[in-house]
């Protein structure tokens, strides 16, 4: 078969390449976390059907969002880069800026209501907000699926979301490198710099490890300052 635009091809290594944008990912990265519904019978492989659904959702996202992007090169966001500031509307109609959270460790999660892996990840984020909120963590969800506000609010209520959910804009996604797949999560230290990033669905433990890095940024800065003072001696008054 000669694949055209909008199709996905599987390589010998098991990776899948989206024909709309050329993005490559492994279906097994997310399929292993899903449990197929009961009642699927016959000779069909339930896991294969799940993978097909995930590939179709990825193709839809890539095709729609790649068609919107301009020809301008997207910024390259790396660890230690300052997190791009933004102001977005929350579900309650208020405006919220990332800079409002300076001094906190921020878990910035790009997601969509139709994203299967996001549905798996969201309960973990709720638990982690409960666990680390008192230590200075603030989870922020940015919905990038272009869904109606009522649909987003219903999803958040059904999932028991206990953190701000903002209505995403393409410009914000582009500021963070284009958000090539969902979910995508950035971990921002108390100093406003990115300390880690996770693309796609990973384990809760890996998310928690990155949260700890973001929470420790202030401590690391204090340790570096103390070390410098010890080398140079106490400051003269």
Brief descriptors of the model:
2 domains; Glutaredoxin; 237 residues; 3-stranded antiparallel sheet; disordered N terminus
| Gap from first CA to last CA | 77 Å
Low-pLDDT residue spans: 1-7, 17-25, 28-41, 62-70, 222-229
> Which class of the largest domain in CATH terms?
Alpha Beta
User: What number is the mean pLDDT?
Assistant: 77
Shape: globular
Q: What share of the residues does DSSP label as strand, in percent?
A: 15-25%
- How many independent structural domains? 2
The main sheet orders its strands as: 8-7-6-9-10
- The Cα radius of gyration reads 20 Å
Q: Please, how many helices?
A: 7
Helix-strand sequence = EEEHHEEEHEHEHEEHH
Please identify which CATH superfamily of the largest domain we are dealing with.
Glutaredoxin
Helix content: 25-40%
The name of the CATH architecture of the largest domain is 3-Layer(aba) Sandwich
Instruction: Write the CATH fold name of the largest domain.
Output: Glutaredoxin
Structural class: alpha+beta
Number of strands: 10
Biggest sheet record: 5 strands, mixed
Q: What is the structure about, briefly put?
A:
It contains 7 helices and 10 strands. With 237 residues, it is an alpha+beta fold. The chain has 2 domains: 61 residues, no CATH class; 135 residues, 3-Layer(aba) Sandwich (Glutaredoxin), CATH 3.40.30.10.
Topology diagram in text:
Elements: E1 8-10, E2 16-18, E3 24-25, H1 28-31, H2 46-68, E4 87-89, E5 95-97, E6 105-111, H3 116-132, E7 137-143, H4 149-159, E8 165-167, H5 170-175, E9 184-188, E10 194-199, H6 204-215, H7 217-232
Parallel strand pairs: 6-7, 7-8
Antiparallel strand pairs: 1-2, 2-3, 4-5, 6-9, 9-10
């Amino acid at each position: 078969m000669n694949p055209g635009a909008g199709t996905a091809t599987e390589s010998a290594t098991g990776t899948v390449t989206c024909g709309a944008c050329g993005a490559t990912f492994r279906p097994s990265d997310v399929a292993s976390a899903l449990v197929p519904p009961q009642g699927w019978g016959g000779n069909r492989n339930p896991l294969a059907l799940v993978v097909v659904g995930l590939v179709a959702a990825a193709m839809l996202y890539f095709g729609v969002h790649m068609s919107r992007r301009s020809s301008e090169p997207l910024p390259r966001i790396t660890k230690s880069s300052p997190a791009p500031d933004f102001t977005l509307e929350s579900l309650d109609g208020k405006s919220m800026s990332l800079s409002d959270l300076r001094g906190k460790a921020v878990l910035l999660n790009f997601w969509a209501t139709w994203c299967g892996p996001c549905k798996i990840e969201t309960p973990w984020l709720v638990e982690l907000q409960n666990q680390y909120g008192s230590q200075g963590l603030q989870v922020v969800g940015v919905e990038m699926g272009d869904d109606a506000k009522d649909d987003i609010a219903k999803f958040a209520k059904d999932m028991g979301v206990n953190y701000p959910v903002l209505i995403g804009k393409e410009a914000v996604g582009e500021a963070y490198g284009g958000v090539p797949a969902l979910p995508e999560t950035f971990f921002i230290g108390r100093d406003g710099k990115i300390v880690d990033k996770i693309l796609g669905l990973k384990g809760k433990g890996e998310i928690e490890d990155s949260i700890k890095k973001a929470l420790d940024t202030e401590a690391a800065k204090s340790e570096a300052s103390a070390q410098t003072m010890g080398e140079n001696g106490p400051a003269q008054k």
